[in-house]
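The record is kept unedited without comment:

——
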Amino acid sequence: MSTPERLPGSREEDAWLSDGQLERCAPAEAEPFQAPVPTRMVSNGEYMPHPQTGKQKHVEMRVKEIADSAAKKLGITRRQFLQVRVAWPRPSSR
């Protein structure tokens, strides 16, 4: 990765991280798998996020497996399934 420029309005301009730390971070939107629930720590630019834990990796793997299975039954892609609001957890009603 090249040294990011701190352009006005960019995430780099508003970060408290050093240039070296910014080089090791990527925006959450750049993650290849966008889960409906967080499966890793992200940074708002004030601190370095912790690496993904084994438990978080396991949760991410299970979300993928469950979404793949459900999507296959519906004849759609995992991405399409996860974008459908019905696939997201709902708060229980009391």
